[in-house]
């Protein structure tokens, strides 16, 4: 008859191997910490912000808002929409343009439109914080020239915010790695504990005999050699 394992038996198995579970779990966290500290290259991220304007419809966001409030003039919705469409076009154009590609070296660049606006966020990521900031600013400063090459005087591009040198890495996330190491170590330790119990073919006193053969145990013969520390001479 096969031995039936209940939830109580599983919990008992884990309690019997609690030291192994604790050690393996902590070891998993330690290995994850050492890995992320010494083997993973820290990356630094920063970003610059530029404004894309369609034609001469805007002098600037601030000046236009001031003029509108003084004269009662409203900003034309079509002008805003066209600038947003132009910003979306430029987000792709600035990425594939040969002049832009030639200055992007040593960093990963992402150019995206700020939601519901005509601002472009130029994000730069590199293993060197100064390189990340320099390339983001270089892309922002080159953007007007690239824009003029394709669109002439149909609009303009202005830098609104320059990229700063990041003081701390944006990745990797050490706490996240350590937590993953803890979880992996815990799962591994539970699996090992269960396997050790499965491969253990020795018959334990009392309950094991009852579960295997469904026969109650009325008495046990004591192993004096084990219990007493050896045979007496």
Automatic annotation (TrEMBL):
Keyword list, A-Z: Cell membrane, Membrane, Transmembrane, Transmembrane helix
InterPro entries: Bact_polysacc_biosynth/exp (IPR050445), LPS_length_determ_N (IPR003856)
Molecular function GO labels: protein tyrosine kinase activity
Membrane protein topology class: Multi-pass membrane protein
Transmembrane segments: 20-40, 177-196
Similarity section: Belongs to the CpsC/CapA family.
Any one GO cellular component localisation term in the record: plasma membrane
Domain spans labelled Polysaccharide chain length determinant N-terminal: 4-88
Record localization: Cell membrane
Record-given protein name: Polysaccharide chain length determinant N-terminal domain-containing protein
A Pfam family: Wzz
